[in-house]
Every structure is written in structure tokens, then in C-alpha cells.
Amino acid sequence: MTLKQFLTPQEIEVWYILPALRRAIALELQHKGLRQNKIAELLGITEAAVSQYLSGKRGTELKFEMDVAQKIEQSAEKIKNNGDLLEEIESLCKLIRNKMITCKIHKKYGVAKKTCEVCFK
């Protein structure tokens, strides 16, 4: 049983969502033929972090639904073609917020009211 703690939505994004997004994007970029050093350069992270994402040692707590996974694939293609990383990450985070995935994670790992709507006010 997991001990639930007070977490802000921003902490949920930093600890769960961003690592899962980076992992998913790194996997997509690898699938598109990019090497770890190029993936690290495009994502602005270390090669060691990319290695951990690709080997499943980091960013595995969250599995994305098909529509989010498709958007991640599109974003990875844009990033590969020198698209704006910040714009793509923010777009994905907005999609995740709108689908209330942040809320589901918050209820699983943190103390959250059943009727919480703080992110949508």
C-alpha cells in the first residue's frame, strides 16, 4: 500500500508526467532511428537519462492512452525535425491536464479531494 502525501499538481507533473513524456518521446525518437546522443541533444537531457528512459528504469509509472500516444508520436516527429521542444511538451501537458490524467495520478499517489477541480478554475 502506498502512503499518500500532499502533492501539488505541479509536483505530479514533475515527478510522474514529465518523466513519462520524456520516456515516450525518447522511445519514439529511437524508433525513428535516432541514437541516444542525438535524443539527449534534442530533449536537452543527458545521455545517461536517455539510457534510463529507454531501458525502463525511469518514467514507467504512467502508461498513455492511444490518443495521447498518437500525439506523442506526432510531437516526437516535430522535435526530430527541429520543432520547438518547449512548445511540444507544453502541448502534451495541456492535453494530459484536459484529459484529467493529472487528477487520476493525484488521487493515486497524493491526497486529493474526490471533487477537486483546482486545476480547472
Observed structural traits:
mainly alpha, 121 residues, 0% strand, globular
What is the structure about, briefly put?
The protein is mainly alpha-helical and 121 residues long.
Task: Describe what this molecule looks like in 3D.
It contains 6 helices and no strands. With 121 residues, the chain is mostly helical. The chain has one domain (9-120). Helices cover 64% and strands 0% of the residues. The model has no long low-confidence stretch (mean pLDDT 90).
What's the SSE pattern? HHHHHH
**Kindly, what is the distance between the CA atoms of the first and last residues, rounded to a whole number of angstroms?**
32 Å
Radius of gyration of CA atoms, rounded to a whole number = 15 Å
Number of DSSP-assigned strands:
0
Low-confidence stretches: none
* Main pleated sheet: none
Number of domains: 1
Please indicate the percent range of residues in DSSP E strands (runs of 2 or more). under 5%
- Counting DSSP H or I runs of 4 or more residues, the number of helices is 6
Average pLDDT taken over every residue: 90
Structural class: mainly alpha
Helix content range: 55-70%
Multimeric state: single chain
Give the overall form: globular
Give the SSE map.
Blueprint: H1 9-31, H2 36-43, H3 47-55, H4 66-80, H5 85-98, H6 101-109
